[in-house]
Amino acid sequence: MRGAINSGSIRLLWLLGLVVALICQIAEGQAADERKQLAFDAVDRNAEQMTAISDSIFYFGEPGMQEFEGTKLLKGTLEAAGFRVDLGGAGMPTNLWAEWGAGRPKIAIVTEIDALPSGSQTPLEFARKPLVAGAPGHMEGHNTHGGVASMAAFAVKQVMERYNLPGTVAISFGPAEEQLASRPFIVRAGYFKDVDAIIYLHIRDSLATGYGVQNYAAISSIFTFHGKTAHGAVNPWDGKDAVDAVELMDIGFDKLREHLRPTYRAHRTITVGGIQPNIIPDTGQIWWFVRDASMPDAKTTYDKLLKIAEGAALMTGTTWDVKYAASAWPQLVTRTIAEAIQRNIEMVGVPQWTDQEQQFARDFQKSAERPVVGLRATPEALGERRQSTSSNDNGDVSWVVPAGLLNFPASVPGIEYHEWHAAITPVSSISHKGQVVGAKVLAASIIDLLTSPELLEKARAEFLVESRKTPYFSLLPAETNPPVELNRAEMEKYRPEMRKFYLDKAPRFN
Ligand SMILES: [Zn+2]
To answer: Across all residues in the chain, what is the average pLDDT?
Structure first.
């Protein structure tokens, strides 16, 4: 009898415990939903401020390292919203880091706002019509990142204040993503040392996240050979031909190609190829990109390329030097953070497109000779993404801190980036609605990371498994400084004409 009573009470206690746990879980879920609702309200209330930021950056049209007006605008908006802003860190005048709060957990948004050379285009015009002929412009839509990232961080700040949440929310706007030029420097400067997780933000034609290793590792270097001039007919034996060395380097690498892993990519352009045929050239230059699925494999090929340069110099009696141009690790994206983001993607959903927006998208696709499919009506399903062979320098960040990835639907399916077509929609209502959805999902996902130690712990454990298999190393030579002169001449040439299109807005969140 005693035994029966005991087992009965134990069962009762167990049931009671289960009910309490269930109630706690529901309450916790409700609290989380309330917090997210507060963030969503902040986004809805400030939607016009957000898109004013993104639209202003579109018209600034600044390529990498020249994001002066864009970062000035972001600094003003974020400081007015109470954020601490560090502009010009890691040796780059347009490197912007903003944060609010104190201590851990510290969650950062990682993104960029640079435009592309020759990308100027009149919004909503299907025909090629630059705002300023030849000028740079946003033919990928990085301008939208400025609004979405700032908006989400502000919405998170509102929630942290209201609920007295500990921790820090940060944004890293890295310069010159299009030239793979800044993230290794930002990592080297230690900005991510006390960061617990990041979410990498990028425009897309769909609402999506994903996981796995994305993009390729890349190393970009410029090789210069130095020889001795002589008359090509009178005394060629006195010359040392630096362009012969360039050719031999090219031939040498072609002989190597057969013996490289099938995953490799390598491409080059001859940037100094001589003067005229009857002058033996004393300078020759060749610029190489070496890529692979992992950085150690790319580095192995790159080391062989250095040997080939040495051999080419030896054969021609020239000397040589190599200058680091850029590098990028592939992006390591954790499944744990992707799953959390996906839950928020499903909660928020894609924008409600109007019939006019769908019609516009179909007309656009037709005029650009792409499949006429309109805008996407559903988010993408969660899955492991295929690794692409292009590169993105934010990859370096993802090997020092656990990373998630969010794409928001602010462009038209089938319209590829890096061509002028893609500059038709970044300030359209399609882009604006996509930004609202993007800011909501981003804010909700940061709230999850700030408030769930289990989530952070699991993401870190997953990150450690991968990052221990391939420990991060920097490709930056010790003495190398960031290429801050990048795109300067182009920007100086076009800025006076581009200035006429500036929106002159000073967006303020409330
Ligand atoms: Zn991009």
So the answer is: 95
